Structure formats: C-alpha cells, structure tokens
Amino acid sequence: MKLAVIKYNAGNIRSLQYALERLGIDALVTDDAEEILGADRIIFPGVGEASTAMKFLKEKNLHEIILQATQPFLGICLGMQLMCTHSEENDTDCLGIFNQKIKLFKSIDPLIKVPQIGWNEICDLKSDLFNGVQSGSYCYFVHSYYAEVGSETIATTDYCSSFSSALHKNNFYGVQFHPEKSADVGHLILQNFLTIKG
Prior knowledge:
Elements (H helix, E strand, L loop, with lengths): L2 E4 L7 H9 L5 E3 L2 H5 L3 E4 L5 H10 L2 H7 L4 E4 L1 H5 L3 E2 L4 E2 L7 E4 L11 E7 L14 E7 L1 E3 L5 E7 L1 E9 L2 E4 L7 H13 L3
C-alpha cells in the first residue's frame, strides 16, 4: 500500500511515521501533487496555527490538491480543523470539506485548563474508523480549538462542553486527537483507516 503524508509547515510528524512503521507502512512524506493524488491513502497531520498553515497550503497549491482527493483521507489535529469551514484562530477561512466551525475553548472553571493536554474519552462512535474500539476509550489530545458537534460528527468528547473528536464526509475523515500517540486504541484506529473503503 502506498500512503502519502502531506508535507507542510505544521509540526513534527516523526511519531506518526513511527506509528505507521509499526503497522508495516513506510509512508511517503511529500508535498508533490502527483505523489499525493497517486497514493492509496492520504494522511494530513498538523500541529500549529491555522492561518499560518493555510497560507503555506495555498502557497504550495496544496489546498487544491486536498480537495481533489478521492481516496480515503485522514486529517489529524490541526489537519482536521483545517478541513472545516472556518477557524476562530486568527479568523481563518479553511478548506470547507466539513461543514463545521472551529472555536476556541472557553473555560469558566479554573481547574479546566486551555489548551486541553492529555487523555480524554471518545464516545458516540459511529464509523468503521472505530471498528473494535469501545465507546469511552481514551485518546491523547493537545488543542485549544475544537470543532462543534454536527451532522458529520462520528465521535464526541467532553471538555468545557461536548465537541467533535472525529468527523466524516464521503472519503474524508478527521480526528482531533493524535492516534499515533494514543497507544493501542490509536494503533487500532490507524489500522482501521488502512483498510477502510472510503
């Protein structure tokens, strides 16, 4: 299987590569349109800031490439957020794949810190992406912004309020958590992505 990881200016992806290697996949990290669109699977990771990331995607014309993808496509963390319509982070227009808005966590409880960093439950699982995963399983999150819950939500998590910890539309999937840092549960989710039909 040929798996492309989209290369753009959005954080270290070594942990994702290691996780894929454990699944027997030697991922190609690339910003080349032909290599991305020719892959069997595409992963769009990201850690960073929305407006800077979108600017970089447009400079490389990667935003157009992403929208052309027809194979199973997985956005992780910032990658998922950039697949939504708009982010409150620096008032950024995003790719518009998912009809969701990205908002900043607002905590009124001093014990609930922003950003959310650490393990939290994923619930209300509704997709083959979660085959074999129990509702209430713990995954690893690092984020200050979140996607609202809507018709494309396939998993929810509570932090300040309920938010979308995963989204799905057509061949596009997104997860707010980091499966590559989520131990056995994350390993299973990545494995499911490698076999999912779309």
